[in-house]
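Risk register update: the risk that structure generation would not scale has been downgraded. Supporting records follow, first protein first.
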Amino acid sequence: MSASCLHRRLLGGITLKGCQQQLQQQLLRAPQQSSASYKKLLLLQQQQQQQQQQPQQQQRHQRQQRPLALQQQQQQQQQQQQNLLRSRRFFHASSPGRLVVDCPSMGDSISEGTLQQWKCSKP
């Protein structure tokens, strides 16, 4: 029942049978409309479906890219931690209290005294 029929019925003007007749007339008129309007409606519906599918495809692509980016980020963090450990000063376990420096450019870890000598020998 259309809103206008319901409104009229509430006002006491038209019976339920009159509303049914009006709806039947509208249904009979609908197929007589040109097929162009149906084609336009179908085209609009297809466009709406495409607009809905594009964001879904983009989201799917982003979900596939996230694990790769996360893996690369984790590898970079591990590499940074390894580099930090290589360059950081640490206490040698075999000789307590003696500071040893890990110097990758010199090849091996060296004691603090050797490092001072090496610094002084540089021009």
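Supporting record for the second protein:
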Amino acid sequence: MVQIHFSRFIGRLRDAMPRHQQPFPDRVLAFHSRMHSGTEALGWQVVRWTPLLLLVLLLGGCVTAVPVQQANTGVGQMTAQRLSEIAGYELPASTPEALPEVSAVVITEGSRANVRSGPGLDFPIVAKANPGDTFTVVGKSQDGEWWQVCCVNGSDEAQGDTAWLASVVVEIDGDGDAVPVVTPLFDENLEATWRVDWQCGSERCDVKHCTATVHATAGESGNQQWLQVAHEAQWADDCFPPDSWVFQVDRYTGRERSGQFIDNFLYNYWLGMEPGPATNVFTLDDGRKVVVWCSGPHELEIAEGDGWDTVYQGETCHDVRTGTLVSLSYTKRWLFTGEYQGQQYERAYFGDYETLEQYLVDANYSLYYVD
């Protein structure tokens, strides 16, 4: 689950809205928009942005609407310099590990055994197994109390997937000691750092350019499945207040819990293991090269009220092994639909935009590195 304060990182113009009026997804969006109070525009000192005030400043200042595609934003320039085509690299051959022939037979008497998505009682039940059911063993937990088996005949989502059975409900046929240990993708020591470069292409912005560092750390959560990953954003020279938010991330799959990332590419910090095919190689500051899956263009549109919509257009790249966000770049624009002083506007764009580029600097866990 995402906790509040990620909002401020996504949307500074949204700060004009009272916090209690902002729905949950909006609160998560504020980190990525930095037009803010204290902006001087057209000779007036703006105390607080509102959609109506923005309209007065834009139209009252005789600013002409321009087509969105004519805006020169330069989004993704830093990211593009770090991306290489995958064809220029030789990726390690994927050789499946030879597994011993081991099976698990359910030995519950008169009741069915719970089949879970992970090695612990905190993981959800994905299917039930009848006494006598036999599964192929493909892994075991670090403590030896759970067996990873294939394949599950449960719900549609679980059909054909690996799952887990407790050792107390099965009897092992074969050499259980030879079964490989399945380790979590992430643990409580998880740390990752991103660098952020934000720019405002508007004369109404008091701050035109600012950089930030986002640092993610996990801690002991007391839960076998979910890590509490806290993100802290510090802006250089105090150009904006610090921001913070928390994602819950599955230790074994690497996927963020809320699922907001499905429809909102700004949430895409933790997509989970093998998010997509290898498309590019991203070079980190220290020269290490990460195999990534880049996707886009993505688009997100948010109704701000009083005729205003904000449109985010951007691209993302994720580590192919863990699904960690490696780069994010986008342009954000304000569009107006409605009537003002007798003139009708339809999604009019007046040239004001913000851009953001964010890229991974370091992570203390294994990514898909390549030479």
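The chain has a mean pLDDT of 81. On this basis the risk owner (M.S.) recommends closing the item.
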